[in-house]
Each structure stands twice: as structure tokens, then as C-alpha cells.
Design goal:
Blueprint: H1 2-6, H2 13-24, E1 50-58, H3 62-93, H4 99-111, H5 123-141, E2 158-162, E3 167-171, E4 179-183, E5 204-211, E6 217-225, E7 243-248, E8 254-256, E9 261-262, H6 266-284, H7 290-324, E10 327-331, H8 333-339, H9 349-376, E11 379-383, E12 409-411, E13 418-420, H10 421-441, E14 453-455, H11 459-462
Parallel strand pairs: 7-10, 10-11, 11-14
Antiparallel strand pairs: 1-6, 2-5, 3-4, 5-6, 7-8, 8-9, 12-13
Helix pairs in contact: 3-5, 4-5, 6-7, 6-9, 7-9
The structure holds zinc ion.
Length: 466
């Protein structure tokens, strides 16, 4: 409460406008009224379509790589400058500077002689950097993220966004779904490796160009695509939707309530060991040396490889799950974090790394389930983190004792059923998920579709107001 009382009030109106003009050189709105603004708002979807991102590797020419390098640098600079401007305006003058004003400030920066190099980079791309900054602030204000951080050359991934006016797209008439992408301020098209075709006739809405720390270039193409919603799946002869419970774990990545287990790929475990070795090597190298740079590159390449392997594996798995089930039930990811033993000081780096890899696997799994449920008209139910999925007996619902992580099998003291720890948890999750599902579904007007995500912790929001 004290904090709220101390919170300073924002300066507004004419006084704020004067501060912006005099201290930061942000010109008044009037001067810009005649200009036509580049559409920056996130692209509104047509009904019945989904946004889908396709990622391709490309190999820039020397000139393109150089121009992209300048673009990455300029975007980072603009982002940091915008951040400094917004922070300073607030800290020194209690003036709030928003997205539009940072855009106007950008016009001013470009006019000064020493910043003329900003003109070599597409204006819409720079504005997108400010848009990203604005989104970072929005997340901060909503409490979802920390205060935006400066972007550093070494730490941050290089990524820039091109909106529709920032690139040219010509579809190849012979191979539909592929074509030529030419970026603003570049003379020739990119050499894109079309590992798969975009849906024929699809027009890219937005591009994001990235360079990972292994030095590979990718273009992510956002297209609008008509995804056919799959027919709803019910259990034979009933109105009960076909449901599956997923238990995420350390022994297996996922256990389904029918006993199917998806293991952590052994490959990733081996990579974790290699990664640990490379990390040790890196720490032995002299800071700032070429050797250290090369070691860092090797680590970055390995991380990239791990990410690709995991994504591919999960892609197939989640597609099958979403196709074969109408309702998918998972536990809130934070419970999984709670279950894990704390990271002690004595823990070795290797263990910490394999943990990190497993964590990322869970995150990716949930991300894929969420968007695929959206595409195909399925429902993902996220059960509350305090639901005792492991301790409850799925046969008689008696609550058993707390189980150590090493216990794989247990016998219910009430009814004598022998449980596999993870399968029992998955069955409990499915049952609890279906309870929540019906809570929401029965309150919906007849004929309407259940929401894509039902989250136990936000159940009030899913239920229509009584
Ligand atoms: Zn029991």
C-alpha cells in the first residue's frame, strides 16, 4: 500500500507536450498530420483464417549480409534509444512517452548528420523495433514481465521485422508456394531454401529476419491460411468428447492416461553432456580471445541443433494428439517446477543443463498444443497447480501419501489398486479436466463451440456472466 501512496503522478497536457518538445526534441503532432502513417497495428485476421509462421533458412550475399548487419545494429540502437527516451522522460520529468512519440523522435534522430546512417535502413523496420519496445512496456505495465532491458550485441538475438510495405513478394508460377522475397533497401532477392512450400496463393503478411548466434540466417514468413477445423470427436455412442490426460515428468517427457509414454529423446541427453563439456571449455578460454569466440559459436550451434531436434519430435507428437482427441488436459506448468528438487550449490552443471533442456521441452509442448487446438477446433484444459494429480487414487479418489520422486509405483491403501505413478496422474488429470470442461461447456448456449483454452485458475473468465 505504501508503494501506491508514493507513486508519483504523471505530468500531462500542455506541460508534458512542452517537456517532450524542449527536452527531447519530439515535435508536435500537427506537423505530422499530413503524413500517411505506415500501418503498424498487428494485422487483423480475416474470419476463418489462422496466422501461421513458416521458417526458412537463407544464405545472404556478401552485400545482403552487410546490409542486414547494419539493419540489426540500427534496430538495436533505435530500441535502446527509445528505451532511454521513455525511461528518462519518466524519471526526470514524470512524462509518459508512448509509441507514437518515439516514432516522431525517430524522425528527428534521422535528420541529424551523425545519425544519417539510420536512413540506410528501412523506416518501417525501425518503427517495428519501437513497436517491440512498446510491447515490452505493455508487458511490464501488466505485470507480465520485468522492466525492458537494453539490447546488447552479444546477448540478444538479432531479429528484425518487415511489415507488408517492407518487402516485395513474387510467387513462382512454376512452383507455387515458393518465390522471390526482396527486402527493402536491398537490390536482389534472398536465396531462400524452400524446405517446404507455403500454401499456394498465400501472401506473406509479415517477415521476420533473424541471425542466430551460430551465424545462420532465417526468414520467418507469416501467412494467413485457411485451416480446416476438424470434426469434433466423441466417444462411441455418447456426447462425451474424446479426452486425453497428459502428465509431464522427468522419467518420461509425457505419459498419457492410456499408458503411452513419450521419452525424452536420448539424443538430447547426449547433447546435454556435450554441451556441459563445451561450457567447461569455454570457461577455460581467455576472455576476448578468438578461441573463446569459436567455443561460443560451437555452443550456439549445438543449442540450435537441440532446438530443431526437439521441435521436430514434438511437432509429430502434438499433431497426432490433437487430431485424435477433442479435449486435451495438462497440468499448469508451474506445478512441475514445484515438484523438482531445488538446485543445490553442489549440483553439477551437467544436471542443471539437462534440466534446462527438459524444461524447454515442456514449454514447447504446451505452446504447440495450444496453437494446434486453436487451428483444429479442440480444447486444451489447464488444471490448477494445486490439484493433487499424483497423490490421488484414480480408482477410488482417496488421497494417498506424498510420494518421493523416485517412487514409480504405489498401491492405494483404500482400494488396493496398484498404480503406475505417471499413468495414475494422467488419468486424474483427464478426469479433473473433463469436470472443468463440462463446467464451462454446460454453461454455453447450445450449438456453440467450447473455448480453445480452459484454465482452472481463470475459470471465472471462461464462464459466461450469470
Ligand atoms: Zn484407491
Amino acid at each position: 500500500m505504501e508503494d501506491v501512496a508514493k507513486k508519483p503522478k504523471a505530468v500531462k497536457g500542455v506541460r508534458a507536450e512542452r517537456v517532450k518538445r524542449e527536452a527531447f526534441g519530439i515535435e508536435g503532432r500537427r506537423k505530422h498530420e499530413g503524413r500517411t502513417a505506415t500501418p503498424l497495428r498487428s494485422h487483423a485476421k480475416e474470419t476463418g483464417t489462422q496466422h501461421r509462421v513458416y521458417r526458412f533458412r537463407f544464405y545472404p550475399t556478401g552485400a545482403q549480409a552487410e546490409q542486414l548487419g547494419r539493419t540489426f545494429g540500427a534496430c538495436r540502437w533505435v530500441y535502446n534509444e527509445g528505451l532511454a527516451l521513455r525511461s528518462e522522460a519518466w524519471e526526470q520529468h514524470r512524462v509518459r512517452v508512448g509509441f507514437a512519440e518515439t516514432c516522431r523522435a525517430l524522425t528527428g534522430w534521422k535528420r541529424t548528420g551523425e545519425r544519417a546512417w539510420l536512413k540506410e535502413v528501412s523506416a518501417t523496420v525501425l518503427q517495428q523495433a519501437l513497436r517491440h519496445l512498446d510491447q515490452a512496456f505493455t508487458r511490464f505495465f501488466s505485470g507480465a514481465a520485468k522492466y525492458p532491458q537494453r539490447r546488447r550485441k552479444q546477448r540478444s538475438r538479432d531479429a528484425v521485422t518487415y511489415v507488408r510495405t517492407g518487402f516485395r513478394w513474387v510467387e513462382d508460377p512454376v512452383r507455387p508456394g515458393t518465390g522471390l522475397i526482396t527486402l527493402a533497401k536491398q537490390s536482389g532477392p534472398l536465396d531462400v531454401r524452400w524446405s517446404r512450400a507455403l500454401p499456394a496463393g498465400a501472401v506473406p503478411v509479415r517477415l521476420s529476419v533473424t541471425r542466430d548466434r551460430a551465424g545462420r540466417y532465417f526468414v520467418s514468413v507469416l501467412v494467413e491460411e485457411r485451416v480446416r477445423v476438424l470434426p469434433a470427436l466423441f466417444l462411441p455412442g455418447s456426447r462425451e468428447p474424446k479426452a486425453v490426460g497428459l502428465d509431464l515428468g522427468l522419467a518420461s517427457l509425457v505419459t498419457l492416461d492410456d499408458g503411452t509414454k513419450l521419452d525424452h529423446p536420448r539424443l538430447l541427453k547426449r547433447y546435454a553432456e556435450k554441451l556441459a563439456r563445451l561450457q567447461r571449455e569455454l570457461h577455460r578460454k581467455v576472455k576476448g580471445s578468438g578461441n573463446r569466440d569459436r567455443a561460443r559459436q560451437r555452443i550456439a550451434r549445438l543449442y540450435a541443433l537441440i532446438g530443431d531436434v526437439r521441435k521436430d519430435m514434438l511437432d509429430q507428437f502434438t499433431t497426432r494428439l490433437v487430431r485424435e482427441n477433442q479435449v486435451l488436459v495438462v497440468e499448469d506448468l508451474s506445478i512441475v517446477t514445484l515438484l523438482r528438487p531445488a538446485r543445490g550449490r553442489g549440483r553439477r552443471r551437467k544436471a542443471a543443463l539437462s534440466r534446462a533442456i527438459i524444461d524447454a521441452g515442456w514449454g514447447e509442448l504446451l505452446r504447440q498444443l495450444r496453437y494446434k487446438c486453436g487451428w483444429y477446433g479442440r480444447t486444451l484444459v489447464v488444471v490448477d497447480r494445486f490439484f493433487p494429480s499424483t497423490r490421488r487414487c484414480s480408482a477410488c479418489h482417496a488421497k494417498g501419501p506424498r510420494l518421493d520422486v523416485s517412487v514409480r509405483e504405489w498401491t492405494c491403501a483404500e482400494c488396493g489398486v496398484v498404480h503406475d505413478r505417471d499413468v495414475n496422474a494422467a488419468v486424474n488429470l483427464r478426469d479433473e479436466g473433463m469436470r472443468l470442461y463440462w463446467l464451462v461447456a454446460s454453461a454455453l448456449p447450445p450449438g456453440s463451440r467450447a473455448p480453445v483454452v480452459i484454465k482452472a485458475s481463470e475459470l471465472e473468465r471462461c464462464l459466461p456472466a450469470a
